[in-house]
Design goal:
- The chain is mostly helical.
- Helix content is about 80%, strand content about 0%.
- The protein is built from 10 helices and no strands.
- The two termini are about 20 Å apart.
Length: about 200
């Protein structure tokens, strides 16, 4: 995998990770209720689900798209349209992320990890995201080392991003600033999702 291809993959994974949704809400809930340990457990269990999606998507798409190029285009366009729809909704939001910045009931570290894993592995948004995300890269990567990097990149990006969130939420001052900037966070994430949709369309 060339550096330019990897950087494109990294950028898309980062944009996908930072966009608000059920995954962010889950990490926030467990970080605020159980502290940093619960937040980290949720973060890396979620990342494990993402890594599993990446592996299954790469293996399955590599075979299917080689034989059915029309399906490749259809899934890519559908994924881009869905991401654009999420982006427009985020732009129209009036700080909806603020409602997620509330702690739930404290649970065990194992329960936090389980919920983090399930919210990633059972999310139709993430399934569609990976179907669209990996489409442009599957045909470009042939070596085993490149394929391993394709799986490791979203796992690490997701895990490290939510690790950062879990650590920052342990700071009360940062939490208040986050609440006050909720509307702008939603708008920036909306722009990121629209950019991601446009990128997918230009690479199909």
């Amino acid at each position: 995998m060339s550096l330019s291809i990897w950087f494109s993959l990294f950028t898309i994974c980062l944009l996908g990770a930072i966009s608000p949704g059920p995954s962010l809400a889950m990490v926030i809930k467990h970080s605020l209720a159980g502290g940093r340990i619960n937040g980290l457990a949720t973060s890396w269990a979620h990342a494990t689900g993402i890594g599993l999606y990446a592996l299954l998507s790469m293996l399955g798409l590599a075979v299917i798209f080689h034989q059915l190029p029309l399906l490749f285009q259809t899934i890519s366009y559908a994924g881009a349209a869905y991401l654009a729809y999420l982006g427009v909704n985020a732009l129209r939001s009036k700080g909806g992320i603020a409602a997620k910045l509330e702690s739930g009931t404290r649970v065990s570290v194992f329960q936090s990890a389980k919920e983090g894993f399930l919210v990633s592995i059972l999310s139709p948004k993430i399934a569609l995201f990976f179907a669209a995300l990996f489409s442009p890269f599957v045909a470009e990567v042939h070596q085993v080392s490149g394929k391993m990097l394709m799986v490791a990149t979203p796992w690490l990006v997701d895990g490290l991003w939510y690790t950062l969130i879990a650590c920052l939420l342990s700071n009360a001052r940062f939490l208040e600033k986050l609440r006050s900037k909720a509307m702008w966070i939603d708008r920036l994430s909306g722009l990121a999702l629209i950019f991601l949709a446009l990128y997918i369309l230009t690479t199909v």
